[in-house]
Amino acid sequence: MSQKAIAVLTSGGDAPGMNAAVRAVVRSGISKGMKVYGVSRGYNGLLTGDVHELHLRSVSDIIHRGGTVLYTARSEEYNTPEGVKKAAEFCRELGVTGVVVIGGDGSFRGARDLTGEGIPCVGIPGTIDNDIACSEYTIGFDTAMNTAMEMVDKIRDTAQSHDRCSVVEVMGRRCGDIALQTGVAVGAAAILVPEVPYDLEKDVVSRILMNRDTGKKHFIIVVAEGVGKVHEIAKKIQERTGIESRATVLGHVQRGGSPTLRDRVVASEMGYKAVTLLEQGIGNRVVAMQNGKIVDFDITEALSMERVFDKNLYDLAHIISI
After folding, report:
1. Pairing state between β 121-125 and 219-224
2. Whole-structure pTM over 0.90, yes or no?
3. Number of domains into which the chain is organized
4. Cα–Cα distance for residue pair 302/305, rounded to 1 Å
5. What is the pLDDT of residues 276-302, one digit of tens each?
6. In this structure, is residue 191 part of a structural domain?
7. Residues forming a β-bridge with 248
8. Do 265 and 234 lie in a common domain?
């Protein structure tokens, strides 16, 4: 019987911990007697042939590095039926019998399409936004939150020195988890997220005025990217309260940096789980975390799930931010 071969790729936005997942896939695969190929620049590498065999030492000294050593890119060609067929044919020519895809929902749709063409795929959730409905945790989330927290702590020093209000935008287009957890961690006076409608007067201005009446002189407002308008919000706060207000957009600094312990460990667990599934010939799955345990779901089922926002934590943040 010929040696089983698998491939691994990273797709979509980069996230700290992706390298730890790649390392786990490579070493788990080799330990099970597999050949493991690294695909460069996402699905695009399957179309251009940008693929190379990885060995044990190929993934040495990458567990602590941010970004992705396999690089990532989006591919318009792959998003066509012809592109998927071409990628599947290349896999067959290479002898690849399964692919591990590290990324978000869009990457998982691509994995489902490739599975449909006869190449079993397993997805691993790698996205700083924590916006994969089937998994309570995604690789990169912890690092991004810690980065945001550290940045806001630095901003707070200036806000305190000048008795200012700082309105800080963190990442999260559709998901407010980074904003929520960061906001709690930095003691934000208000947290604005896409999941909860807000009234600027009631939920921000009145809270600032109430807190000022009790002696508070500087304020932090954390806003998710999906809410946006931080410069406009800062301007209105200053107009309504008379408190000098500044807006800061943290941006892509949240994507980079050395992954935290949690991201390294979870990535390693998920990488091993993905290889175990492919070893059994099981594809069209997404590895996920539920109740702190590593599990897996059918990709179509996973994509149809609705993410649950932690309203209890949001309410708690509102109560203790007085």
Report:
1. unpaired
2. yes
3. 2
4. 5
5. 999 999 999 999 999 999 999 999 999
6. yes
7. 168
8. no
